[in-house]
Structures are given as C-alpha cells and as structure tokens.
Amino acid sequence: MNRTVNLLDGKIFPALASLALPIMLTSLVQMAYNLTDMIWIGRLSAGAVAAVGASGMFSWLSLGLGLVASTGGQILVAQKLGAGDREEAVSYARVSLQMGVSLSVLFGLLCVLLSGPLIGFFRLNSGSVVADARLYLVITCGLVIFPILNQILTRLLTAMGNSRTPFLANAAGMVLNILLDPLLIFGLGPVPAMGVAGAAAATVGSQAFVFLLFFLCVRREPVIFSHVRLRTKPDRRRVRTIVRIGLPSSLQNMAFSAISMCIARMIAGWGDAAVAVQKVGSQIESISWMTAEGFSAAVNAFTAQNFGAGDRARIRKGYRISMTVIVLWGSFCNLVLFTLPGPIFRFFIPDAEVLPLGIQYLKILSLSQLFMCVEITTAGAFSGLGKTLPPSLVGIVFTSLRIPAAMVLTKTSLGLDGIWWSITVSSIFKGSILFAWFLLSGLPRKDPPGKTPPSGR
C-alpha cells in the first residue's frame, strides 16, 4: 500500500489534510507519553511531579538540539524531492541521521556527568525531590538517542509525504508506555515499585520500541532509506547546509527551553506545588500547541516540496487553507481551557490545595492559544521556504522578554499569576507579528516565468 501523499498535484485541502491528520495524531501521541507520566506520578506526590518537571526540561532541551539535524534534513529532503533530485535527497537524509547520532551521544554524556549541577540550577526545596530529579535526568537524557532519532525519522518521512508510518510507530509506543507506567512506578508481583525511576524507564523503553519499529519499516523503503549508508563519511558541504537551515530553529527551541528553566526557577520560589502546577498545566496546554506543531510539519513539507517544484501559487493557496483550519482549532482550545479549567486540572492532580493554582494557570494561558497556534503554523510555512530566521528571531526576542516581564509583574499584586501573564502576552505578540511578517514578505508572490500550475490546484 502506498503511504505517501502527493503534495505536488491535485486538490490542496485533501492532500494537506491527509498528511496533517496523522501528524497531528502523532503529536497527540507524543504528548500522551508525558501526560501518562503525569497522571501516574501525580498519584505519588506533588514533589514527584516537580522532580519530573525539572529534569524534563533537559529532555526538551535535547530535542531542541536535535532540531539542527531534523529541521534542516526535513526541509532539504522535501525540496530536493520536489525538484526531482532523489540522489541529493538521499544524501541529505544520511547526513541528518549521522548528525542526530553524534549530537545525542554528546548530550547524553554531558547530562549523566553533570546531573548534579544541572538539577541544582532549579533550587528545589526538598532533598528527595532533587534525588528523584537527578535519577530521572540520568535515565531519560542518558538514552536520548532514541527520541532524537525518532524525531529525525518522523520528519524525514513527513518530508516524503508519509505521515502514517510515524503515527503508527508512535501510537504503538504510547500503548506500551501506558502499560509500563503503572507497572514500573507502583510495582506488581515480582516487579518492584520504582517510583519516578519507573516512569523514566517506561518512557525510555517505549521510545526504544518506537525506534525499533521505525527501523523495521524504513530499512527497505525504496525512495530514500534503502539507499542510506550511515557508515559513509559525512559530507561537509551538506552538513553546513543542514546547519545553516536547521540552526535558527534549534536555537529558538533551545532558547525557549533555557528561558523556561529560568521561569521554572522563579516559580520554585513559590514552592514545589507551584512547580507542579506549571508542569502539569503546560502538559495540558500542549494539546493545542503540539497539535499545531503537527499541522505545521504538514505545512512545512507541503511548502518545501512545492517550493522545490517552483509552484508559488500552490504555496499561497495552501497557506490560506492552513490558516483557516488552525484558527478554528486555536479558538476551540481557547474556549475549552477557559471554561473547564477545574475538571481538566483535577484529573491530573486531585489536590485541593494545588487545584486553585492550576485553575488560574489554565484560565490565563487559555487567552493565548489561538495566537500560539498561528505562530507555530506560520513558522512551518516560513521553514518550508528555507527561511528559518524570521520565526526564530521573533520567537527568541519575545520569549526572552518573558523573564523581565515576569520579574516586574510578580512584584505587583498579581504575584505568581504575573508569570502566567508574561507567557500569555508574549505569545499574543509572537503570533500577531509573525503572521503579519509572512503576509508582507514571506509569501511568494509570483511563479517563475513560464510556470503554469496544473488545473485542479
């Protein structure tokens, strides 16, 4: 069965929807890994949630580092396929995977060797929470090679128009994670209760299983992967090209992670319960931004392939259709988080003292969901054109402003809520500015001379 979607010909919305739906489902599956951990760890204690939240920041940072290889690889592979140059597409896929292996091994070693200072940055209040956080960090980031390679393989397959395989592989991993989490966290029969370490082991085991499924699925794929030879010496020119395109997105993601760590350190001043609220609240909120990121990946592949083929008109129409869909989704998320914050948060932490903090977090953050979705999707369109600098610049500048804004607002009567407002307002600015930038300078205006898009586009 052909699992690839033709992004170059035919009706745009069915093609975009066929590619986007499995990607969005994959994003929800990836989010479910973290939510599953939170559901079970929340039954242990708020301190356990704080431990996972602090160490999880470095997992987030590692995936940001991996974006150098995955983003550059996805864009270049899609553009070369759109241009009909399969040999170059294979070469860029190979270099992307080689870079992913090298980066993940280096990052994993650093996290294992420096686990103490890295967790110490957050100034957590309990010795047991610090110990749990270090253990979770060593297990998950020490074996970060699996999620990074899964990320790269997901993006390369998406660049080819195949979003079904990543969904099926990640869905199988989620099922395994759901089964392993309660077993390893609380124990059963001969299996001892491992607590936070059990959650880490369940996550890593599931990610390794996903990588195995990817390997079995792609090793005989005829267009790209069957021609990839990882033992071949990396080509420096292609490495530089991937870094040039992927680095801005990587820096934006890592800056976002670093800024989030600084914000988390400020939140820790209100106690471990506040850290737990931020961790759980951000996971709940991720249902909107991870879905938007999934749709953004589809827009990226669609734009990149058509850019390689020289069809600007199709790119413009695809972006308009994408914006219509994502505005509806963002508005829906706004409504749900604002009207149902209590029942949603209580599902994860049924603690009467923590619940009011969680409700306030979701209500404030709900106001930015639409703008965040617009920003993420527009960033995907920019990247498909090979223009990764504009979304990175807007993201880094306005995300950085959260720190001084939070410092000022927390001194007012808002207190802890001042941090949540700094996040919401910056997201509103990012979405509005990037959307306007794309309309003014990012959207291709004309097709090349002699280019006539086929009918039905």
3D architecture notes:
The chain has 457 residues and is mostly helical. The protein has one domain (13-442). The protein has 17 helices and no strands. The protein has helices at 12-41, 46-82, 86-113, 115-120, 127-142, 145-159, 164-186, 196-218, 236-267, 272-309, 312-339, 341-346, 355-366, 369-384, 389-400, 402-409, 417-442. Helix 2 (46-82) runs antiparallel to helix 3, helix 9 runs parallel beside helix 16 (402-409) and helix 14 (369-384) packs antiparallel against helix 15 (389-400).
Helix percentage = over 70%
Strand content: under 5%
Shape: globular
Structural class label: mainly alpha
How many beta-strand runs? 0
How would a textbook summarize the main sheet? Answer: none
Mean pLDDT: 85
Distance between the amino and carboxyl termini? 25 Å
* Whole-angstrom Rg: 22 Å
The helix/strand order is HHHHHHHHHHHHHHHHH
Oligomer: single chain
- Determine the number of helices (DSSP H or I, runs of at least 4 residues): 17
Low-confidence segments, given as residue ranges, are 448-457
> How many structural domains are formed by the residues?
1
